[in-house]
Amino acid sequence: MKKKLYIKTWGCQMNEYDSSKIMDILMHTYSYKLTDKAEDADILLLNTCSIREKAQEKLFHQLGRWKLLKIYNPNLIIGVGGCVASQEGEYIYQRANYIDIIFGPQTLHRLPIMIEQVLSNKKRRNSSPLIDISFPKIEKFDYLPQHCPKSPKALVSIMEGCNKYCTFCIVPYTRGEEVSRYSDDILLEISHLASQGVREVHLLGQNVNAYCGMTFNDNICTFAELLYLIAAIDGIDRIRFTTSHPIDFNDNIINVYRNLPELVSFLHLPVQSGSDRILNLMKRYHTVMEYKELINKLKDARPNIGISSDFIVGFPGETNDDFEQTMQLISDINFDMSFSFIYSARPGTPAANLPDDVSQEEKKQRLYILQNQINKQATSWSNRMLGTTQHILVEGQSRKNTMEFTGRTENNRAVNFEGSIDMIGKFIEVEIIDVYANSLRGRVISAEDKINKSITNNQKLTKITNIINTKSL
Ligand code: SAH
Ligand code: F3S
Fold first, then answer.
1. What CATH code is assigned to 4-132?
2. Cys staple from 152: which of 73, 89, 414, 425, with CB 3.0 to 4.6 Å?
3. What is 139-370's CATH number?
4. What is the pTM of this model?
5. Residue ranges of the chain with pLDDT lower than 70?
């Protein structure tokens, strides 16, 4: 009988991506079956996140619940992965000695071997846990099976880790330093996805614009070059990426917005704060003015571009005046849908040692004001779309009504409309006829598959050859 696997995922898109890779390995290579009931599973995995909140407490609460299941099924295997596993390592076992496996974001591909080892240890009545939270350089990707996409859009990790060490952030300590995948491996993965019907790729990394991967002939491929190469893959007509850091957003990347219609007119570019004093304490290495100049250059290259951001309120020592400057920046840039968080001290990060005299009440109040403003702006971006024609990638059919379909616009808004099954996986044109809080209503104008190709096949070949030979774009 097939063994049953249950995975719980907390955190960002990167963690979602890692969990999907764990499923690929265990289900496709090792024939595990996925279950959505923890009590039916033979193996329980928890993929954790430590970016905010009281991650440890949350972890031990969850494990406490799973401990009960182990009492009734001693052969049950419990594994903890992700950033909390990476940070806490053996301590997790010390507090929860019924744990079998502790793995990190860079060692998830070793799970099958670890599971085998646990099973053989169990036979010998050895219950010591297997712990591997090391950072082997990018080895992981060589062990991941090819993904079988279920949707016309796919996540593709191009780099891992972060070298920026913003003073508030735990990521460089839990995911390690920046490592870029080989460009040819990424291109091969995407062309495989394209051959399976994928039309949109979402490139992932903590800092994608710092990408610099080796090519097969030992050249360096930059992020801008990678974008051109991906857009040249037949079938790939839309590219998104997250996340970028403003200091790595160079002119070559801005030029890609001029040259490649495949790149969406929407960019998530976290700024965190609108106060130079706070940006300096956060060690973001840029000023508010520099951020604004960057956005102006982007708007020059792509006039209709929408920008979203991450904001932290209540960073240690943030004054009312600092907060007002953030509010000013929000209205100056006119950010679209964005993420905002109350600062959460992460043990081991430099900011955790800074004196923090802003009350929690005050922080909550600031978050409320900020989110209110962002929501208003996002609504007015949506309202402006009313009556316009939008290019959407049709992703699927509604479960409740078979006549209803859904797709996404370039600025990532869900559009629901009446359509037909043959539209799935195509880029079609809809007119926006209604605007709701979290979605739009559309009417099909043209169901013909509209592709965005900026270059023909011949130009494509010449371009790729140029990049590989001369590296000039
Ligand atoms: N480049 C990364 C950023 C990771 S963290 C990415 O791939 O998204 C995502 C966001 O969480 C950050 O931009 C920041 O706004 C927020 N964040 C990180 N550490 C935080 C902390 N200690 N407290 C509150 N918010 C935090
Ligand atoms: Fe974190 Fe700053 Fe890197 S927010 S992921 S250290 S860019």
1. 3.40.50.12160
2. 425
3. 3.80.30.20
4. 0.89
5. 137-140, 142-143, 145, 147, 452-473
